[in-house]
């Protein structure tokens, strides 16, 4: 099984940033069965990383692994949209092919 590498770029400890972190954690725990690495990057602390990745808005989630690379912008509150963006299907659909 592929391990997922997810990088979430945020700007400080704002309510929007906190919501994105909480939403991503919930999605990872529900859908990825522990087969993921989640990295939170605060662009106020590490602006060069944001510049390198060409982050224009936060929160931005980047799925680096498995390929293809995917980006999702927003607080990740729309679980269906996030799963589609990450090329994932909800666990319930995987049980019933």
What's this entry about, in short?
The chain has helices at residues 15-31, 47-52, 79-85, 91-95; strands at 4-10, 36-42, 60-65, 70-73. It is of the alpha+beta class and 97 residues long.
Description:
By secondary structure, the protein is an alpha+beta fold. It has a domain at 12-49. It contains four helices and four strands. The chain has helices at residues 15-31, 47-52, 79-85, 91-95; strands at 4-10, 36-42, 60-65, 70-73. The chain has a four-stranded mixed sheet. A hairpin with a 4-residue loop joins strand 3 and strand 4. The protein is globular and about 35 Å long.
In what order do the strands lie side by side in the largest sheet? 2-1-3-4
Largest sheet: 4 strands, mixed
The helix content, as a percent range, equals 25-40%
Measured on Cα atoms, how large is the radius of gyration?
13 Å
Structural class: alpha+beta
Q: In percent, how much strand structure appears in the residues?
A: 15-25%
Total helical segments = 4
Structural features:
four-stranded mixed β-sheet; 4 strands; 36% helix; alpha+beta; 25% strand; 97 residues; disordered C terminus
């Amino acid at each position: 099984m592929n391990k997922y590498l997810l990088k979430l770029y945020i700007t400080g400890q704002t309510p929007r940033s906190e919501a994105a972190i909480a939403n991503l954690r919930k999605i990872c725990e529900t859908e990825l069965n522990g087969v993921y690495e989640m990295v939170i990057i605060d662009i106020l602390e590490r602006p060069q990383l944001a510049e390198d990745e060409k982050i224009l808005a936060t929160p931005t989630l980047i799925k680096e692994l498995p390929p293809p690379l995917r980006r999702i912008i927003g607080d990740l509150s729309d679980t269906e949209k996030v799963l589609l963006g990450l090329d994932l299907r909800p666990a319930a659909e995987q049980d019933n092919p």
